[in-house]
Amino acid sequence: MFNITQRLKERLNDDLEKIAKSGGQARLPLFSAGLVPREVENDIVLLMEISSESMRNPRIMQIMTNAWQNLKDNFIAKEQALHPEKDSNIIHTRLYVLSLIIDGIIIRRSMKQREIAPSFVPFFDGIINDVNNTVIKQ
Fold first, then answer.
1. pLDDT in tens for each of the 138 residues of the chain?
2. Rounded CA separation 80/91 (Å)
3. CA-CA distance, 80 to 128, in Å (whole number)?
4. pTM above 0.90?
């Protein structure tokens, strides 16, 4: 569990630093025509599978709660460090929107065995750009 969350944190931290260094012109490399890289998707799917087991096992529930909180705290801390002028509500909202989109894409691809329609990519890019620009401009 630790290895998965550590890999996700490291990748996200690298991506957030790239955005900050570009002055907001770059977007998360995580989001591209491929949408979510396979290795990230596989890690998140594994966390989802473990999460389903946590519904039956209180010990696993606690481990999962801690793992998700660790990822959330990391994102918020990194964003606050890179953008100290940003309101924490904007950072929390950004995390929420990105999580919803990523989880939805992964669930659709993994559980329904469906690829994302190519026409969705420009729409998705627009959402991500809006979220990034809101954080940068606020």
1. 668 888 888 887 787 777 777 765 555 544 444 556 777 778 888 888 888 888 999 999 999 899 889 989 998 998 888 888 888 888 888 888 888 887 887 777 777 666 777 777 778 777 766 766 665 555
2. 8
3. 19
4. no
